[in-house]
Amino acid sequence: MSNLAELNHRWTVPDYPPIPVSAEEIAEAERNLSFSFPAAYRDAVLATGLPRLTTELWEDIEAAGLHLPHLCDFLTPQEAVSTTRDYKDAGMPANVVGFASDSGGNLFVFRSDTADDAVWVFDHDFLTIKLVAPSFEAWLKAYGDVPQRTA
User: Fold this and answer.
1) Lower Cβ count inside 10 Å, N or C end of the chain?
2) DSSP SS3 for 88
3) Contact (Cβ atoms closer than 8 angstroms) between residue 71 and residue 143
């Protein structure tokens, strides 16, 4: 099971399945952003869709004492375009593209000036970016590995 599929399996509920994404939607977003999403992102999203996570993930991050931003929403390709443009208008660096958000309104981003798929977080309050994972798969795994509390 891929890391995105595992994240979907562990941190969603069946009533809210992942949002399907087509290759055409990704290609359109890439054209609009003049950016190519990393292959790992593209492959995972096409295979799994975009999970709709529960807040239990946030609660379990806190309960485990982990220092992970509260992953909230994966942006659809269309949302990635509009959100990236809006955040750039508000001061986000020109060399980043958003693909997900945290619970505080910050964006998880890829840098467009590197060939890797490292994941960064853009802090909209301080207008800074900080590396959070060396790769998209490592970023997904960090959330997929959050221990689940028992009821």
Assistant:
1) C
2) helix
3) yes
